[in-house]
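In the current project phase, our protein records have gained a structure token line. A sample record follows, to show the layout:
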Amino acid sequence: MGLVLRQTMAVALAAMLFGATGIVPLSADTPRTGLMWNRSGLPAAFPLQVKTPSGQNYFLVLRDAENDRQALAAYINGGEFFKVLVPPGRFTLQFAIGQEWQGEDTLFGPDAQTRFVELGPPLTFKTRGIGTKAGHIVEILRADPEKPLQISIREQAICQTVLPPVPSPDARDLAIPYEYTHRPSTRRIRPVARPSFADDPLADRPADADRTAYRYTAPGYELYSNYCD
């Protein structure tokens, strides 16, 4: 997919890539693998998984391709499982790579202690079709400090389906008078009455009984999500 890697060992590039100015420094203690902050102001709903080899650690920044602003940052201890939800948009992924974390200002240290890598072109995170949230898997296959990184990128998506609940065998239809003002039970109920059932309370009513206008409870739908290709 036309992956472009731009690498440099110059510490001066840290300010340009990661915008050290204005970032509130964290503790120099090594963070746990996971999200550090989300400054996009948008809900995070699209999957990003990064697979890394052990031996080095990674500070990841997603920079908005439209306005060049930092949107999200995460820390990855090399070899550990990492997956995060990110906001919608087009983002450039920028990595700082090194051994010992010294905080967001210094990253992994000066000079050759911190290695900078930027992936291009930007990756797009968006909704595809009706219920598919498209994201990516980024895998760093090799991170030898003396050689170029080997990286593969492929799509990953979250597929969502809305389904009605499966009724239980002993479920009963429930009719509620229109003038009923109290909140009905929250248990799931089939929405259509079945007067032909012998155990249906409406079927037991005599023909000459008073006929009150009834409304019926609406079905409760459930959202199912799973990762898909």
Q: What stands out?
A: Residues 164-229 form one domain.
